[in-house]
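[09:14] KT: can someone run the structure on this one? pasting the chain below
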Amino acid sequence: MGFGRYLAAGAVLATVGAVGAYAQYRNTETPVYEAQVSEGAYEVRDYAPMIVAEVTYTGSRRQASSASFRRLAAYIFGQDRPQGGEDIAMTAPVLTERVDQNEKIAMTAPVLQEQVQSDTWRMRFIMPAKYAMETLPEPPSDITLTPVPARRMAAVRFNGYARSDVLAKMEGRLMAWVEQQGLTPVGNVEYASYDAPMVPGPMRRNEVLVEVTAE
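[09:31] RB: done, structure tokens below
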């Protein structure tokens, strides 16, 4: 087989692997909600209560996301737990939000920064619905299990890579739509990522969400 054929075969295998990862993540458990309003890429959703495992880091979004993901993955896959236990199934999406700097932070850690600006970020893994607070494995001290009550969220979905400039643009669009719907945003804006890193850009599902109340 010539070099060109090796490259072609490698490309095919990479594509198959990416499609497989895409299919796998599309079959993962996602949080339960009921759509109250649907308008193209925009929705208002009523979410059922859930439990999340969360960790907070300070630094650039990319560096904080990478460090947070590794810590939470170590918890759900049983690599770092005080008492061990079974693996917890991965769910989607992974939620990330910028935390109010005036909020009291339970844990921060120094992170190498890619930008001059340094923010505090919280990443959340949603726990499978079969678990209750008392049945989840005990997390390490820097990870918190938090019950999230039922809430109403406005969301906009988009495909591609969730770069900072894209997130800012979609956040602006979501806020404009929320205002048009006569809703009031409360709390922090959240970024939701549904797919593994190897999933191709056009297949990647992302969302920007914010909790809302009626005016």
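[09:33] KT: thanks! The radius of gyration is 19 Å.
[09:34] RB: yep, looked fine to me
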